[in-house]
Amino acid sequence: MAVIALITVGLTQNQPSPHNVKYGVVLDAGSSHTTVYIYTWPAEKENDTGVVSQIGECMVQGPGISKFANKVSELSNYLPECMQKAKEMIPVAQHQQTPVYLGATAGMRLLRLENENLADDVLEKVTESLRSFPFDFQGARIISGKEEGAYGWITINYLMGKFTKKLRWLFPLGNESNSQETYGALDLGGASTQITFVPGNQTIESSENALYFRLYGKDYNVSNGTIYDPCFNLGYSRVMNISDLTNSPCTKTSKTTLPFLQLKIHGTGNYQQCQESVFRLFDNSDCPYSHCAFNKIFLPQPQGQFGAFSAYYYVMNFLNLTSEEHLSQEDITDRMENFCSRPWKDLKTQFGDVKEKYLSEYCFSGTYIITLLFGGYHFTPDSWKDIHFMEEIRNTDVGWTLGYMLNLTNMIPAEQPVSKPLSHSTYVSLMVLFSLILVAAVFIGLIIFHKPSYFQKDRV
Ligand SMILES: O=c1[nH]cnc2c1ncn2[C@@H]1O[C@H](COP(=O)(O)OP(=O)(O)O)[C@@H](O)[C@H]1O
Ligand SMILES: [Ca+2]
Fold it and tell me: Where exactly are the transmembrane stretches of this chain (predicted)?
């Protein structure tokens, strides 16, 4: 009876009650669009790692919120459709306890640089809209590039279980295995990029680690308002407003006064030339530290494994460059040369269902990513294999939003919580094993006491 009782206690202890579930909503207000993420986790296990998962995602129709700067009243119709979806996914009884956060990234950072009042108006309007839902709204703010990088890093390592403590007492001689080392995070958005990793033993020579890049080069090879661009496929052409180029704070210093308002771009589809001009965007001269990324920004030599997500994933996945098998630099160059040189007409025929804006920019975006990784962050053909392009882990999107929520809900404690040294299944197995040993011991004991002569018969 005692044995049965032991096993029953083992099996029933620690089972999360299926009803006690919490929810959280985070809105990622990016430069090109806004996405609403809905997360859930069992309340009892709040401080465990890897228990939060994504149950829903909703892409808001329309551009990023910064594009509403001059028509903020239109923002009142912007979020309701996706927030309604969140309302339907979360049980009514939980609405009031469900925190909602909105974080805006590079698009809003740029708008704030240009015009702080307009940025405030936009945030005020989305705040007003989010307050009208029955959730526990926690605020809408612009997050810094540093935070964006840090929360992406938290998300990826949380989802990969990198924060879980290994059972060291079971394997006291084993070294901290490689699998416990954290992954670096590579995020690429529409208007900013972040790289975040633990730099090993190298000293931090600069506390500044947010990275911004310029989207456009300084000088344009312009004549008669027509530009020949090697980063677009042959046969592709597009008309672009000069103001779109010069109105961004990123290009303020290079304001050129051109005698026309529009540019006509013609693709020439040449990967090598495209790569050379993109490479010129990264200033690798005069690093004041022992190692730099580009533009004199301190960056230790990348080390360890990296997860690359967001636009890194979308672009490299489209270009078939995400495979885990080792691709040599020649393979990558061959594929890019091949893709960029394909006539636009062929691409349109083959990928008719792909959004034209994305399809037309894949040659440029792929070239940009490869040049940023090799020429900007100084990955090598050898360390390329350490970059893993990923969209999601265990059905949860990789991005800064989960890390943001974990941090703001204090779900990642600063100190390692006092945790049980054994997993539930190991605990139950050991209980069963020791119970059987106990039964065997009692059984043998009984035999010895009842028939001692049996064991003594060989003695003289
Ligand atoms: O399917 C796709 N193919 C290619 N690029 C994509 C796809 N979906 C999104 N993107 C790009 O990913 C980027 C996402 O940026 P986001 O809107 O998060 O901006 P931010 O992080 O700079 O604020 C944008 O450049 C967008 O164009
Ligand atoms: Ca983003």
Answer: 427-449
Closest CA to 369 of 213, 245, 227: 213
Q: Which residue has the tokens 């974080």?
A: 103
Complex confidence, ipTM: 0.95
Structure tokens at 220: 């344009």
DSSP 302: P
CA pair distance 9, 5, nearest whole angstrom:
6
The CATH number of 20-144+397-408 is 3.30.420.40
Condensed to tens digits (0 to 9), the pLDDT of residues 350-362 reads 999 999 999 999 9
Please name the amino acid found at residue 32: S
Comparison of pLDDT for 164 and 341, the residue scoring more: 341
Q: Nearest 5°: CA angle at 369, between 227 and 242? A: 30
Ligand 1: residues with CB < 6 A are 30-33, 64, 105-107, 189-192, 310-311, 314-315, 358
pTM over 0.95: no
Are 255 and 246 in contact by the 8 Å Cβ rule? The answer is: yes
Tell me which H or E stretch contains 262. Answer: strand 262-267
Name the binding residues for ATP.
190-194
